[in-house]
């Protein structure tokens, strides 16, 4: 397999969350890359926590995929990495309780992430935040944009928006990309 074939066989994702105050207005950002294609998504909530935004970034990224491809998901959130790779199985085994018997924080989002991640083969990778990693820096910028744009509004979490490279408005499916288009999730490709 050539390098180009290897690149085209999998999807690379970068996610990040941001929160101005904790709780406070927050946002999430996603960068999806498949071959030469790139899609940027972001959204937010006027009153949330950083951990919820980190989770929503990963959830939204995986929900945007329509076809099964190997996925490499990069995040600077130890909470997401440890939760999905170390803690989740125990929470489920204990009926969604922590090892000390308490309720799992953000259980609603962990259940969503578990369901959507189960549909794909995901290689979860932690990257150090704010360390010059291009994909993570871009996801961070999108998360901050989401916090700013959605932070002053009221109501539910905003629907995904496309970043500058993806354009605004109704997304279009790119042939063979494996990313959703149209529908209720405006950020689907």
Automatic annotation (TrEMBL):
<comment type="similarity">
    <text>Belongs to the RNase H family.</text>
</comment>
<keyword id="KW-0255">Endonuclease</keyword>
<dbReference type="Pfam" id="PF00075">
    <property type="entry name" value="RNase_H"/>
</dbReference>
<feature type="binding site">
    <location>
        <position position="54"/>
    </location>
    <ligand>
        <name>Mg(2+) 1</name>
    </ligand>
</feature>
<feature type="compositionally biased region" description="Gly residues">
    <location>
        <begin position="179"/>
        <end position="189"/>
    </location>
</feature>
<keyword id="KW-0479">Metal-binding</keyword>
<comment type="subunit">
    <text>Monomer.</text>
</comment>
<dbReference type="InterPro" id="IPR012337">
    <property type="entry name" value="RNaseH-like_sf"/>
</dbReference>
<feature type="domain" description="RNase H type-1">
    <location>
        <begin position="7"/>
        <end position="148"/>
    </location>
</feature>
<dbReference type="InterPro" id="IPR036397">
    <property type="entry name" value="RNaseH_sf"/>
</dbReference>
<dbReference type="InterPro" id="IPR022892">
    <property type="entry name" value="RNaseHI"/>
</dbReference>
<keyword id="KW-0963">Cytoplasm</keyword>
<protein>
    <recommendedName>
        <fullName>Ribonuclease H</fullName>
        <ecNumber>3.1.26.4</ecNumber>
    </recommendedName>
</protein>
<dbReference type="GO" id="GO:0000287">
    <property type="term" value="F:magnesium ion binding"/>
</dbReference>
<feature type="region of interest" description="Disordered">
    <location>
        <begin position="151"/>
        <end position="189"/>
    </location>
</feature>
<dbReference type="GO" id="GO:0005737">
    <property type="term" value="C:cytoplasm"/>
</dbReference>
<dbReference type="GO" id="GO:0004523">
    <property type="term" value="F:RNA-DNA hybrid ribonuclease activity"/>
</dbReference>
<keyword id="KW-0378">Hydrolase</keyword>
<keyword id="KW-0460">Magnesium</keyword>
<dbReference type="InterPro" id="IPR002156">
    <property type="entry name" value="RNaseH_domain"/>
</dbReference>
<feature type="binding site">
    <location>
        <position position="16"/>
    </location>
    <ligand>
        <name>Mg(2+) 2</name>
    </ligand>
</feature>
<dbReference type="GO" id="GO:0043137">
    <property type="term" value="P:DNA replication, removal of RNA primer"/>
</dbReference>
<keyword id="KW-0540">Nuclease</keyword>
<feature type="binding site">
    <location>
        <position position="140"/>
    </location>
    <ligand>
        <name>Mg(2+) 2</name>
    </ligand>
</feature>
<feature type="binding site">
    <location>
        <position position="76"/>
    </location>
    <ligand>
        <name>Mg(2+) 1</name>
    </ligand>
</feature>
<dbReference type="GO" id="GO:0003676">
    <property type="term" value="F:nucleic acid binding"/>
</dbReference>
<comment type="function">
    <text>Endonuclease that specifically degrades the RNA of RNA-DNA hybrids.</text>
</comment>
<feature type="binding site">
    <location>
        <position position="16"/>
    </location>
    <ligand>
        <name>Mg(2+) 1</name>
    </ligand>
</feature>
<dbReference type="InterPro" id="IPR050092">
    <property type="entry name" value="RNase_H"/>
</dbReference>
């Amino acid at each position: 397999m050539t390098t180009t074939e290897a690149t085209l066989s999998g999807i690379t994702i970068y996610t990040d969350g941001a929160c101005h105050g904790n709780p406070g207005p927050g946002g999430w950002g996603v960068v999806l890359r498949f071959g030469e294609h790139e899609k940027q998504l972001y959204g937010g909530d006027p009153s949330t926590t950083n951990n919820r935004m980190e989770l929503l970034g990963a959830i939204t990224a995986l929900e945007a995929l329509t076809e099964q491809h190997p996925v490499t998901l990069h995040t600077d959130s130890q909470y997401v990495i440890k939760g999905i790779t170390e803690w989740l199985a125990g929470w489920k085994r204990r009926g969604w309780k922590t090892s000390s018997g308490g309720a799992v924080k953000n259980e609603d989002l962990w259940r969503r992430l578990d369901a959507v991640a189960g549909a794909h083969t995901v290689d979860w990778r932690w990257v150090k935040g704010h360390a010059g990693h291009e994909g993570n820096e871009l996801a961070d910028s999108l998360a901050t944009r989401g916090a700013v744009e959605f932070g002053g509004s009221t109501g539910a979490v905003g629907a995904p928006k496309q970043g500058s490279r993806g354009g605004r408005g109704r997304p279009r499916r790119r042939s063979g990309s494996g990313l959703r288009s149209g529908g209720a999730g405006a950020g689907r490709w």
